[in-house]
Specification:
With 452 residues, this protein is of the alpha/beta class. The protein has three domains: 2-117, 3-Layer(aba) Sandwich (Rossmann fold); 128-338, tm_1862 like domain (pyruvate-formate lyase- activating enzyme); 378-452, no CATH class. Helices cover 44% and strands 13% of the residues. The chain has helices at 2-10, 30-36, 49-66, 106-123, 146-149, 183-197, 213-225, 238-243, 246-254, 269-274, 281-293, 311-327, 345-351, 361-367, 382-405, 411-426, 433-441, and strands spanning 40-44, 72-76, 96-99, 143-144, 154-159, 161-162, 179-180, 201-205, 231-236, 257-265, 297-304, 332-337. Helix 11 (281-293) runs parallel beside helix 12. The radius of gyration is 25 Å and the shape is globular. The relative contact order is 0.07. The structure holds iron/sulfur cluster. The site of iron/sulfur cluster has 11 residues, from loops. Iron/sulfur cluster (SF4) is lined by residues 164, 166-168, 171, 173-174, 207-208, 237, 263.
C-alpha cells in the first residue's frame, strides 16, 4: 500500500485509507469518506481472491451508491491475472483498472477520470441556448438586487443553464438533466452586456455552477482576461467547492464572485443523506470558511419540514445555522418550508398523504387551500407543522435576517430578537406569545423568504 499512498500524496491528493476487515465489517468513517470523496480507489495488493472479491464488490458498490459522480478505480496484484487483456470487465462497478506495475500512473488516471466527468458536464453545455439574449432589449430587466449585492446598483439575471445532475430526492429538479451555456459564450455574453448597458452585477441563472470545475474556472479566468470588472452571483454545491483548489477559488474570487448560494438545507449528515444530499456538515462549514477567506459571501438555503423530519433534525438545523453565522456576520440564509413536488422521490411520498391532485387548473387553484384541517404539511404532526411555520416565518427571519434590514430597531424589536435567538438556542418552539406581541406592536414587517 505504501507506494500507492506515496504516489497519491506526492501528487497532491488527500487520502483517507481504510483497510478491509476480514469479518466483512465496514470500517468506521468509510461511508462519510465515500460520500465526500472526489474518487474511490480499491487496491488489492496481492492475489487473494477468496477474500478480495467480496470486499471489492462491496466497496465499489457502496462507492457507486453513495457518490455516483466520483470516479471509481481498482488495481493491484489481483488484476495481474484478471484485466481487460483477458476480457475481464469491471464495469459498471469500476471505471478503470490500474495494473500493479502502473502505481505511478494512478494519480494521472484519477485526474483524467475527474476531467472526463467535467467534460461530460461540459458536453451538456452545447445543449443550452440563450442566443436570443443578444437580440433582446435588456433595459427593462435591469433592477437592483439588494439582498444579493447589498447595493442599489442595477443587476441582471442571465440564463446560463437548466436542470441539475445532483438528484436530491426532495428537489423539484431531481429528474432533470443539466444543460449549461459554454464558458466562452457566457463570458462573451457578460462582457457584451457590460459594455452595452453599463451593468456590473450579474446573476448566473443556473442551479449548480461548480458542477464542472473546469467550466467554472474558465468562466472566471475569461472574465479576468476580458477585464470585465463585474460582480456576480451563482448557485453552487458545497461538495463542488471542495473540489476546487485554493488557486481555483482565488481566480473565482478575483473575477468578481461576490456571493454564492449553497443548498445546505439541513443540519446533520444523517438528514442530508435522507434528503439525498451528498454532503456533510463539516464540508458545508469548511467550504463556507474558504469562501469567507476570499471575501465571497456564502448564502445558505435552509429547509424545514421535510418528510420524516424530527424535532432532533430541526435542532441540528438550528445548530448548523448558528455555526455558519459564527464564521462571519456576513453569512446569509434563506429559510423555507419543504414543498412537496410531484414526480420526485420525497414529493411522491408526501403526496400519498394528500387527496388526489385535481385534473384541471381551476380545481388545482383551490386545492391547496382545502387540505385536511387546513393543514399544508400532513406528513408532519399538526404541532410540528405549527413549529416549522413559526420557525420559518418568524423566529429565524427575526434572529438572523433582521439586523441587515432594519437599521434602527425599536427596543421592543431588539427584545423580541433576543427572545428569538434564545428560542433557536434552546430549540423551544411552543407558546408563540412573542410572535403575537410582534404582530400587535411592530410596524416594520419581517423579510421572510417563505412563499406560500
Ligand atoms: S437541491 Fe440543488 S443540488 Fe440538489 S438537485 Fe436540487 S438544484 Fe440540484
Amino acid at each position: 500500500m505504501i507506494p500507492v499512498l506515496s504516489s497519491l500524496t506526492r501528487n497532491g491528493f488527500d487520502v483517507d485509507l481504510f483497510i478491509e476487515s476480514l469479518d466483512g465489517r465496514r470500517p468506521t468513517g468509510l461511508e462519510d469518506s465515500l460520500r465526500s470523496c472526489s474518487a474511490a480507489v480499491a487496491w488489492c495488493a496481492e492475489l487473494n481472491p477468496g477474500v478480495q472479491i467480496a470486499g471489492l464488490v462491496s466497496f465499489l458498490g457502496l462507492a457507486a451508491e453513495l457518490n455516483p459522480a466520483a470516479p471509481r478505480l481498482t488495481g493491484g496484484g489481483f488484476f495481474t491475472f484478471v484485466n481487460s487483456d483477458t476480457g475481464f470487465d469491471v464495469d459498471p462497478l469500476a471505471h478503470r483498472i490500474v495494473p500493479d506495475s502502473g502505481i505511478g500512473s494512478l494519480p494521472d488516471a484519477i485526474t483524467q477520470l475527474l476531467s472526463d466527468s467535467d467534460r461530460a458536464t461540459d458536453q451538456a453545455a452545447s445543449q443550452f441556448d440563450c442566443s436570443v439574449m443578444h437580440e433582446l432589449d435588456l433595459q427593462p430587466f435591469l433592477n437592483p438586487e439588494w439582498f444579493l449585492f447589498g447595493t442599489g446598483e442595477r443587476a441582471l439575471q442571465i440564463p446560463t443553464g437548466y436542470g441539475c445532475g445532483k438528484k436530491c430526492s426532495f428537489c423539484f429538479y431531481e429528474q432533470t438533466h443539466p444543460k449549461f451555456l459554454r464558458a466562452e459564450e457566457l463570458v462573451s455574453l457578460v462582457t457584451r452586456i457590460r459594455t452595452e448597458y453599463g451593468v456590473k452585477q450579474f446573476l448566473f441563472g443556473e442551479l449548480d455552477f461548480f458542477a464542472s470545475r473546469s467550466r467554472a474556472v474558465r468562466v472566471a479566468q475569461g472574465l479576468l482576461d476580458q477585464d470585465a470588472d463585474v460582480r456576480w452571483f451563482a448557485l453552487v454545491s458545497a461538495q463542488d467547492i471542495e473540489r476546487l483548489s485554493d488557486e481555483d477559488l482565488d481566480v473565482i474570487a478575483r473575477s468578481g464572485c461576490h456571493i454564492l448560494e449553497i443548498g445546505t438545507e439541513v443540519g446533520s449528515d444523517g438528514a442530508m443523506d435522507r434528503i439525498g444530499k451528498k454532503l456533510t456538515v463539516e464540508i458545508a462549514i469548511e467550504q463556507s470558511r474558504r469562501l469567507i477567506q476570499r471575501g465571497i459571501v456564502p448564502l445558505h438555503n435552509m429547509m424545514f419540514g421535510f418528510v420524516g423530519e424530527t424535532a432532533h433534525d430541526r435542532r441540528d438545523t438550528l445548530r448548523i445555522i448558528k455555526r455558519l453565522r459564527r464564521l462571519h456576520p456576513a453569512v446569509q440564509f434563506t429559510f423555507r418550508v419543504y414543498q412537496a413536488v410531484p414526480a420526485t422521490t420525497m414529493g411522491d411520498e408526501a403526496l400519498r398523504l394528500l387527496p388526489a391532485i385535481p385534473k384541471n387548473l381551476n380545481d388545482l387553484a383551490s386545492f391547496r387551500f382545502e387540505l385536511r384541517d387546513g393543514r399544508g404539511m400532513p406528513w408532519l404532526e399538526a404541532r410540528e407543522e405549527r413549529e416549522v411555520k413559526f420557525l420559518t416565518e418568524y423566529i429565524l427571519p427575526l434572529a438572523y435576517d433582521d439586523p441587515q434590514k432594519v437599521h434602527r430597531p425599536t427596543l421592543l424589536r431588539r427584545a423580541l430578537r433576543l427572545a428569538a435567538e434564545a428560542r433557536c438556542a434552546l430549540g423551544y418552539l411552543r407558546a408563540p406569545w412573542d410572535r403575537a406581541v410582534f404582530r400587535r406592536f411592530e410596524k416594520a414587517p419581517l423579510c421572510g423568504t417563505f412563499s406560500p
